[in-house]
Amino acid sequence: MKQNDIIENIASRLGVEELNDMQRRMAGIDRRGTFTLLAPTGSGKTIAFAIPLLKSLGPSSGHVQAVVIAPARELVIQIADVIRPIATGLKTVAFYGGHPMKEELNSLSVTPDIIVATPGRLLDHLNRGGLDLGAVSTLVLDEYDKALELGFADEMKKVCRRLTGLRLVMLTSATPLAAIPDYLPASEPVTIDFSQRDTPRHRMQVVRVESPSRDKLDTLIELLRSLPDGRVIVFANHRESVERIHSALRKASVPAGLYHGGLDQNDRENAIALLANGSTPVLVSTDLGSRGLDIPELSAVIHYHLPVSPEAWTHRNGRTARQGAGGEVYVITNEGEDIPEFVSFDRDYVPTGHNDNPIRSDSATLYFNVGKKEKISKGDIVGFLIAQGGLTSGEIGSIVLRDHSALVAVPRVALESDPSLLQRLNAARIKNTRAKITRMA
Fold first, then answer.
1. How far apart are the first and last CA of the chain?
2. 8: Cβ–Cβ under 8 A, 6 or more apart, which residues?
3. How confident is the model over 173-216, as pLDDT tens digits?
């Protein structure tokens, strides 16, 4: 692809009118060589490596041309959602655990140009014998440091040794790499270091909130009631703690969602969608939520538990103060709790339990059990809700369209003031298809 076309697509399809310094630097790299990009979370690195990746590709050829490997399912989905709309004329597919294998195999009936995948799932496809990566010329190992931390070194080695035609290799990492792995082409790597340039730490306030008791739940609730309206992630160290906190917040009428590795993939994706569209503007999460989530306008991060490592601290905080914006980081502590050396505070704060513009949920989410595979488009859903639900186009918010489902944000007041709305929607057909429509939140 031509660089001008890529930049135009980034502006028109992703809404990014101007590239940042890192993205411009990556846009200028050659189509050959090995490059290491050091960049903090939230700096726009997906667009940064997508530009040279797409520049390196020719027209659709019936062969896989590029592979992006990422260590988490959520990150794979996020990357694919960035690349797919700007890779015009090229087919992009995403492979990851929890996604139906049958659908992934069907997507190979027409050979894709770009594959974005987790290491294990890509190796599974290779071992099944239905995938040929011999023509791949471009490889990205995204969040390579995290992939090593999660134990994917062996899977990545087995995949990469099948990539015999590589010309361009890019690795991204939040921390400096000790060495380039020996299973990649033996070229002198070029390091592009944006790890210390305009880091999110410079744009965030780290605030200490002292809890009068060892159990921090009451303090957390008071803090959430004190914050202005926005989206917030609350981090805890264990699934059991996340479940307990989530339950307590719901009982306190705080609009909270739940996110951890014990949930199935669909529930996790739904939790992120409901956070993003404002239906549940508070998300309680383990460290699984510290990477790979594409969440706009996250106003604050709350550490219910202190993180266990500097890396966890960095990546949790990286959920806010993204793309040049500011953000608040709140750390709830109690007397006698050891504060790690990597945690430093800018100020203290005592919650009042009140805000004139508090966190609230003005949106509700409708779940449709039909999607792209049933030939339903976002436009079909908008037209259906206008015709059958009496909504205006301005009232219909974010629509997440999946293969067999859709999540649609609508005003909460529209459902609460019209008890028959769901009944009317379920009695009608959308594009001659009967759909079951339920309220999620």
1. 42
2. none
3. 988 887 888 888 867 889 999 886 545 545 678 999 999 999 99
Written in H, E and C, the secondary structure of the chain is CCHHHHHHHHHHHHCCCCCCHHHHHHHCCCCCEEEEEECCCCCCHHHHHHHHHHHCCCCCCCCCCEEEECCCHHHHHHHHHHHHHHCCCCCEEEECCCCCHHHHHHHCCCCCCEEEECHHHHHHHHHHCCCCCCCCCEEEECCHHHHHHCCCHHHHHHHHCCCCCCCEEEEEECCCCCCCCCCCCCCCCEEEECCCCCCHHHHEEEEEEEECCCCCHHHHHHHHHHCECCEEEEECCCHHHHHHHHHHHHHCCCCEEEECCCCCHHHHHHHHHHHHCCCCCEEEECHHHHCCCCCCCEEEEEECCCCCCHHHHHHHHCCCCCCCCCEEEEEEEECCCCCCCCCCCCEECCCCCCCCCECCCCEEEEEECCCHHHCCCHHHHHHHHHHHHCCCHHHCCCEEECCCCEEEEEEHHHHHCCCCHHHHHHHCEECCEECCEEECC
The model's pTM is: 0.73
pLDDT digit string, tens, across residues 291-309:
767 676 678 999 999 999 8
Confidence of residue 54 (pLDDT cuts 50, 70, 90): very high
